[in-house]
Amino acid sequence: MGVPVHTLTLTEFLEWENEQPDRHEFFRGETFAMVGGRRGRGRVIANLMRHLGNHLDESPCQVFSENMKVQVGDEAILYPDVFVTCDQRFTADDIVFTAPVLIVEVLSPTTQRYDRSEKFAIYRKLSALREYVLIDPETRRAEVFRPQADGSCMYFDMTEHGRLVLESIGFELPLGLVFKGMESDGVEGAG
């Protein structure tokens, strides 16, 4: 999370942010400008969107990417990198979702600490959330956290198994496909 740029109410933030050319997150009255991502992060998001979208086709669930907002109570509006909702209450015009079952954050050096701590603590307040996934393009790691009814979380390191397993939506994907297209990182002329 960056430096706050405004202090607003949730309603004021939603009105203000919808008029801005750039994205901002909201937490307890403060707004934070979102920064751009790297190629590896974008590649992972695109791969996940494609495979999750295909998996969820013909199901009541839908996958969304970093341009859609998730609201956590009255205290936060966040932009997950990828999320899945099975909530049938939304319409085609909705811009804010409140019941994701799965949230994926693709880590970067600047957001890793925040995604692992404060942001995860905020997301855990979502009653519908069944899995929180952290994917690191640099180390090729995939970690899954499954909130439990007692408030604890079960942790699964998917890296060692070579597969991303998401129980919340009955989905499995080899990690090679999660990171596909990143093989040319650092190769001259790769674009």
UniProtKB/TrEMBL annotation:
<dbReference type="Pfam" id="PF05685">
    <property type="entry name" value="Uma2"/>
</dbReference>
<protein>
    <recommendedName>
        <fullName>Putative restriction endonuclease domain-containing protein</fullName>
    </recommendedName>
</protein>
<dbReference type="InterPro" id="IPR011335">
    <property type="entry name" value="Restrct_endonuc-II-like"/>
</dbReference>
<dbReference type="InterPro" id="IPR012296">
    <property type="entry name" value="Nuclease_put_TT1808"/>
</dbReference>
<feature type="domain" description="Putative restriction endonuclease">
    <location>
        <begin position="11"/>
        <end position="152"/>
    </location>
</feature>
<dbReference type="InterPro" id="IPR008538">
    <property type="entry name" value="Uma2"/>
</dbReference>
